[in-house]
Fold this sequence. Notes:
15 helices; 72% helix; 2 strands; binds geranylgeranyl diphosphate; mainly alpha
Amino acid sequence: MRDFDTTIRETAGLIETALDQFLPRRSGPLGRVVDAMRHGALDGGKRLRPFLLIAAADMFDCPRTRSVRAGCAIEMIHCYSLIHDDLPAMDDSDLRRGRPSVHKAFDDATAILAGDALLTEAFEILAHRDTHPNAEVRCRLALELARGAGKDGMVGGQMIDIYAEQKSFDLAGIEELQRLKTGALIRFSAMAGGVIGEGSEADIAALTSYAEDLGLAFQIVDDLLDAFGAAEELGKPVGQDADMDKATFVKLLGAEGARDQARRLIEECKAHLDRFGPRAEPLKGAADFVFNRKN
Length: 295
Ligand code: GRG
């Protein structure tokens, strides 16, 4: 099999080109919000969520013209969440992907609007006929993305993260929070690959189970990187969880326990893909990539 880093970089290149085309520069005041959207969305990130979507869709021979569009939609939602998360009212972070965060490069109001516009554009892309000729498929993608991104998904998780008294969270509480905050978009990504590829319901369920375990492992690794990673490699500050005395997987399980749990989840998530045989190798590679990532 090809080196996984090459494979994910190749997909990231497709997403970069397509995002660039979705966000052409404009002049005047409108140009400012587009520049901010481009700052938040282009030239950065692992593009893991689009990779999961495209790799899952590839298993059903879905044309890349379709899956790359849906991949851009999920990446736009992810980038909007990072832009808003970095705002002073939330995480107040000056650095993202090794560069000034959007509100630092522009201003708070522009960052809010850029995030809003990316969120909205994601649904415009999914609703467009070029994403899939079957309107039922387009509707299902939009429905699942709305569920994953909204109050019953990422936004809900962010709300719990900001306002819950985290110090008293036990393992189940942290899992529930992260299932929403980080897991919901990862879950959508792999599942949407099955939907856009018109896989069977059993195929879509297997992809969903894969992504649920993967999302949890992703967050455990994120906690480990915040505790033990290097800011230069991560492109963002580290040690924030401990500074805020947040309940994390590392705090509750210890470093070794957290790593063991992530390893177990990675094995479990790969097992959900057995029904797909060798076609699932890229998604299995993504699971190892998540476990071994340094940023
Ligand atoms: C503001 C509605 C709203 C939600 C924010 C996802 C999120 C919710 C905030 C991000 C905070 C954070 C760092 C969470 C940890 C998991 C995570 C989403 C990490 C960043 O994702 P990566 O590693 O980033 O895929 P890249 O830069 O590679 O795209």
